[in-house]
Amino acid sequence: MGSKSSSLNKIPNAQELMQETGFSAAHILRLYERFEFLDVDQRGELRPEDFGAIRELSMNPIGDRIISAFFSPGKEAVDFASFVRILAHFRPTETNRTRDGAQPEPANSRTRKLKFAFQLYDQDRDGKISREELLQVLRMMLEMQVTEEQLQSIAERAIQEADLDQDDAISFDEFRKSLEKVDIDHKMNIRFLS
After folding, report:
1. Average pLDDT value for residue range 111-132
2. Mean pLDDT for the stretch of residues 32-38
3. What is the rounded distance in angstroms from the CA atom of residue 46 to the CA atom of residue 78?
4. CA dist 152 to 56, 149, 167, 174, Å?
5. Which three-class secondary structure string do you get for 107-133?
6. CA-CA distances (angstroms) from residue 172 to 50, 127, 178?
């Protein structure tokens, strides 16, 4: 344990990050190692191109969108603390963790995970997934497996099923309701933390 805590001392705000994200000391150390590995120029920050070394993202059809989720609008780099906060969305949900009203909802809560997923579709950040935004993701994910006509049909059916207020787009609440029976923890996880 002594070596873990002494190693943790070299990580800025490690205790605060553990408290905020729910990651253990071992996870924070592992994430720091991963961050340093990705930070090949040793700038203390990552740029979008640094994420190319993550095989799972480079092979993911929406990997570019996942990578862009690490960066605030107008920001070209992410520091270690921001990196950890984003990755906290991929921690398993803790069903027995209680919080008082003053504490923010943890990043790994079902709602925050869904909000993270929602933003991967809602590229113009207007709070709705338009038919075109849905089609863009479907094209990336399905590539040459289906025809454009089939993609249009899939998008149309998805919007019809999820669009409860009939505005021809999917709001976050509609998105959440349409995924009520989906095991979001299974869909959003990080294998290298286990």
Report:
1. 93
2. 94
3. 5
4. 28, 5, 17, 20
5. CCCHHHHHHHHHHHHCCCCCCEEEHHH
6. 30, 7, 10
Neighbours of 170 (CB within 10 A): 27
Reduce the secondary structure of the chain to three states and give it as a string: CHHHHHHHCCCCCHHHHHHHHCCCHHHHHHHHHHHHHHCCCCCCCECHHHHHHCHHHHHCCCHHHHHHCCCCCCCCCECHHHHHHHHHHHCCCCCCCCCCCCCCCCCCCHHHHHHHHHHHHCCCCCCEEEHHHHHHHHHHHHHHHCCHHHHHHHHHHHHHHHCCCCCCEEEHHHHHHHCCCCCHHHHCCCHHHC
- Residue 189 has phi, psi (to 5 degrees) of -145, 165
Q: What six digits make up the tokens of 15?
A: 């205790």
In whole angstroms, give the CA distance from residue 176 to residue 180: 6
| Residue given tokens 């207007």 in the structure block | 126
d(CA 188, CA 190): 7
Average pLDDT over all residues of the chain: 87
Choose the weakest-confidence range: 34-48, 84-98, 111-125: 84-98
Q: What is the pLDDT of residues 75-116, one digit of tens each?
A: 899 999 999 999 998 888 765 455 555 567 888 888 989 999
Q: Which residues pair with 130 in a beta bridge?
A: 169
